[in-house]
Design goal:
CATH superfamily of the largest domain: Vaccinia Virus protein VP39
Order of helices and strands: EHEEEEHEEEHHEEEEHEHEHEHEHEHEE
Strand order of the largest sheet: 15-14-13-16-17-19-18
CATH class of the largest domain: Alpha Beta
Distance between the termini: 62 Å
CATH architecture of the largest domain: 3-Layer(aba) Sandwich
Helix content: 25-40%
Largest sheet: 7 strands, mixed
Radius of gyration: 22 Å
């Protein structure tokens, strides 16, 4: 294990257990360290601080995965990490009505760069960094040993891999994986396309927001924007919505949404599915809705594009507010890590003012239980959701 020294004036974040070590915090970085190489971090006086893996010679040099002085990195190390993460999910998430959730949430589960989602008896994995990918064999063996899944599928096709000069990788890593997996979430069933769907196939991080939306939907007319495979559609229909219109640009996602409605025994006559650009749709409709749900993709993928992204979020929210009837409910979300909760509140205030409507907060949500966050790791905060009423 290579030893790296943290500068005295940069030791604070390490003591506060932030999981990233930036290159400027290191006194010296020897040449030739391969990504994934275990490293030990010490103070200028030689005191042990943490251990992790070498990430790159660019901004983030080391990603921390342990604070135990003599912890050896091997197969059992990954098994311990996975067992602890699974224990938390089994305690607070998994039950007879829910069998799909995020099992490993990267840095927040002290496995930086690794994402693992559990869909019933199957696992979908993503390796975000070259460093964590170098441990793929040990990680897959640990997942197999710990959870005994029927199959493990890799969806390492995220744009972030390009920053590490990594290509897109997809395929079965263990067992066999069907094209579609049927999962349970809060008692509802959903078909998940883990091979071709967005992310790993389903937006697991919206479970609690979907459940919260039900209380506002009874006997209401609902518009579900960026509906994808119909998560919010199924929940609001089940809650007694008179009619739900689902809008998305993906025809295949809408087809799966239709199947999910039928799968849950709900009346397809109370649904409409529109394949269209949401902004275009909102600009051209004349009818109003009692509830509008906005769950767009990230408009800000780069902090340099934050101003442009804020303009986009403000515009889409203004259009949604204009589409609401008096005393209507807006469920508005953002999954942009570069947009803070306060940013969303401010642009929402501007959108309400432009639409000539007063907005009142009813509920605020961030990450779900299966997406835990390290307290100092603010960079890991991305999801935020406001439920507001209008007048």
């Amino acid at each position: 294990m290579i030893t790296l020294t943290i500068k005295k004036n940069r030791i604070g974040p390490v003591l506060g257990r932030h999981p990233w070590i930036f290159s400027q915090a290191l006194a010296n970085i020897p040449d030739g360290i391969p990504p994934g190489k275990p490293v030990k971090l010490v103070s200028e006086t030689g005191e042990f601080l943490a251990s992790g893996y070498f990430s790159s010679y660019s901004q983030i040099a080391v990603r921390i995965w342990s604070y135990e002085k003599d912890e050896t990195v091997n197969g059992p190390f990954f098994t311990r990490r996975i067992e602890r993460a699974w224990h938390i999910r089994r305690q607070y998430v998994e039950n007879p009505s829910t069998n799909a959730y995020r099992l490993i949430n990267g840095e927040n589960d002290l496995l930086p760069g690794l994402i693992v989602d559990k869909y019933a008896d199957y696992l979908v994995v993503q390796f975000h960094t070259r460093g964590i990918e170098s441990w793929k064999t040990e990680i897959i063996d640990a997942l197999e040993t710990t959870l005994r899944p029927k199959g493990i599928y890799e969806r390492s096709d995220m744009p972030v891999r390009k920053q590490e000069n990594l290509g897109s990788v997809q395929g079965v890593l263990y067992g066999s994986v069907p094209d579609r997996i049927t999962i349970r979430e809060n008692g509802f069933q959903f078909l998940v396309d883990v091979k071709h769907g967005q992310k790993t196939g389903f937006f697991l991080d919206q479970r609690d927001k979907r459940l919260a939306s039900m209380k506002y939907a009874k006997e209401k007319k609902v518009l579900n924007c960026f509906s994808y495979t119909g998560g919010f559609t199924v929940y609001t229909l089940a809650a007694g919505a008179n009619h739900v219109t689902s809008v998305d640009t993906s025809e295949s996602a809408l087809e799966l949404a239709k199947e999910n409605v039928t799968l849950n025994g709900l009346d397809p006559e109370r649904c409409e599915f529109v394949c269209d650009d949401v902004k275009s749709y909102l600009r051209n409709i004349e009818e109003q809705f009692d509830v509008v749900i906005l769950d767009p993709p990230a408009f800000i993928k780069d902090r340099r594009k934050k101003k442009e992204g804020i303009i986009g979020y403000r515009a889409i929210n203004e259009l949604a507010i204009r589409a609401l009837s008096k005393d209507g409910i807006l469920v508005t979300c953002s999954c942009s890590a570069h947009l803070t909760l306060d940013d969303l509140r401010y642009l929402l205030s501007e959108a309400g003012g432009r639409a000539g409507r007063s907005l009142h907060f009813l509920e605020t949500y961030t990450h779900g239980i299966d997406h835990p966050q390290l307290v100092p790791f603010t960079e890991g905060s991305y999801l935020k959701c406001f439920i507001v009423c209008t007048e």
